[in-house]
Amino acid sequence: MGKPTDILVIDDEQVVRDAVCRVCKAGGLSIEAVGDAHAGLERLQRNRYRLVVCDIMLPELDGFHILEAMRCAGVQTPLIMITGYSTMQNAVNALKNGAIDFVPKPFTADELESAIRRGLRYQKFAQATAGRGLQVGEVSDFSVPCPTSYYRIGHLSWARIERNGSGVIGIMDLFLKTTQGVRELKFLEADHDLVQGSVCAWITSHDNLVHDVLSPLSGRIVEANESLLSSPELLEKDPYFTGWLYQIIPTDLANELKHLTCCR
Amino acid sequence: MFARLSTNIGFRLIVIVGITTIITIGVYAYFNIHSQRDDLLSEVERHAMQLSETVKKSTRYDMLLNQRERIHIIINEIGSDPAIDEIRVLNKEGKIIYSSRKENIGRMVDKQAESCYGCHAADKPLERLPISERTRIFRINPDSARVLGVINPIYTERSCWDAACHAHSKQQQVLGVLDVTISLADVDERIRASTFQVAIFAVSVILVASLIIAFFVNRWVSVPVRALLDATKQVGGGNLSYTVPDLGGDDIGMLAQSFNTMTMKLSEARLQLFQSDKMASLGRLAAGIAHEINNPLTGVLTYGSFLLKRTENNPEVHEDLKVIVRETLRSREIVKSLLDFARQSIPKKSLSDINEIIIRSLAVVEHQLTMKSLKIVRNLDPHLPKITLDPSQMQQVFVNLLVNAADAIEDGVGTVTISSGLLSLSPQGIVHVKSARCPRGHDLISNDFKIEGMPSIRVKAQCVGRSGFIMLDPTYGRNRHHFEFEARDEEEMEIVCPSCGISLMVDGGKCEACGGRIFSFEVPTQGDFKFCIRKSCGWQRWAAVDSAGKKEYVELSVADTGIGIRKEDLPKIFEPFYTTKDQKGTGLGLAVIWGIVDNHNGTISVESEPGKGTTFRIRLPVQ
Fold it and tell me: Which of B339, B360, B363 sits opposite A85 (nearest CB)?
């Protein structure tokens, strides 16, 4: 069994495949590219890859089917969705269904690279826990899982619904672990509007990569956690409580919760 | 024109019935007159015959006795009756031996004369002549009255040739002829009078019958057929709001009703098609464009940012690349916000209690509001009917308005009042035109110029060689028009369609308020909208909406005692990307709210006084 190829990219647009390949090669990663889902699944069955980067809307097959097909075939490679903004809803859903991250198109080289680095680190954790048949996020070896009754979007960020209907948003520990340390945190001010699945904060890690934090809910920011400005280590120390990011007024709570995973 | 008239079914019916009437009445009249005349004449004939016989009988004895004097007296006496023209006796030579007219006694009458012709026409005179041939009608003079003459041959008998006077020989069969002529003046007069009467009667019957037929054909056939014809032309021309007026309960009336039903269904179907298509295609278009753009943008952005990273040691190139990356990121944002906006427009509607939605919205924002120690006042009408709406969109509307209200109150002291109530409103000032067309079907709605957030109706005004545009207020009853054209003389001004130039003036139409000329345009499925051309008058009539009468609306309002909005900002606050909050808001909020309210066929308006507060008022129709 040879060394697995780092990345498999599946996208029907030449320019996107080229862009991903360019970024990966410059980052020293090995990469294969295919133009349709069937070819991709075929490759996945024949070879081993550390990470799959896949367009959510391929001709003939969409992201969910690919995830399903991979599950059926027993392929456990983590998958990052890339998606146009028109299919955001699907992207959010995809996270609920097994994708580990998504990167909206168009993306900068950095955005892609950050996601790929995170994905690769995730894959390392996953491999380590594979034998125990548990979800990475549920294992406390590598990261702190979400407290009960919290909602999460993939393994990226969480939301807690307060009794008065407002929401509190924060970043998940596993996400922070995959960024390998927070050097700097940039976030939005109050009165900004958030959209579920859109970026709401930026983490600059020690390797100078900027990681986008995606919002789990749509709403307006009532308050941002100012204490994070002075002590950013709060984020990593206590991501689910004092390290919260925003307090928001959700605008479509009932509908959007359906797309999130509830933490037991 | 005659050709056109000849295709008119009413006209044809009238003509054919008229001709039939004329023929039948005419024939009847003719036979009537004739039979009357024949009857009268045969009466006179009979009378004359009888008279003749009577004279013969009364003079027989005296003739036998050869009492000539007495015969003269008898004939004179009888003949003095004014109706009798002459009684005369001719002998076999043709000499008038007795006559009631003295001057004729002794005269000879030619055998060819009309009185003799009957028997003496043949070579040998006839001895017997049937009565019908013994009468003749002639005129004595060309311009005198007609007379009827009866000749009565006097046959011989034994006592005649046996008599002592030896006047007649035994061989003579016909001793002479008694000729009685009766004036037909009276009879003729009566015939003339009765002919006249019958003629008058016939003519008046024809006239009256024609008038009655014409009236009813017109009422029952021509007018309805014309109305239906006009209707089909209008509908064929695209005007699906045209309704045929009530044409009664007969077949044509029912035809008109089902015609109206048909056009109504047609226009409903078309509107549905429009609406669902428009929204869906807008969303699809936006999504499609975004999808297409995303991939090329990815190429530019990824490579651009990649190069940017790699040229950190080359400041000049680095700076240039920065521009590329920055602008590409900006394009990304534009596409994103376009999609967000398009995504809002597809509502999921259901029958809901609006007070519940308000309470939920309040719960969501309460924390923030109480944090600012604001007072919240609720004025919710408990008896509101349920309305078909999208609950999550409506909640978004309220949450937005409440947050805006809270924001407006800067120093933490103030009140936010939220109210709901039921209103019964007449359409004036409420209902607005969303769609307007010229008679050729061109769209008159202008999205470029909005009057209080709503697209206006653009028409072209022409006056003495100059022309310009006028943007009409789409709200019924309001006259906040925008004039890009001033007519020097309103009486000479013409309003036309900006696309095709067809006149929008109503031929012969008069303003009900001032009598001035009026123009109109069609609101699809909702009839015509009429305007008075005089600016000072301002009269409008939208018949279809008026006839629907007052409608029920649920009115919701969110009022704050905050800083208010400046008057010059008020008309623009519902525009997308317009914000008074500098960089904070995306500016999309109120535009999205406006879109949601509009999608529910409602209206949103704002009243504000800087320093005092602002009130947003939403009105949603109750279906």
Answer: B339
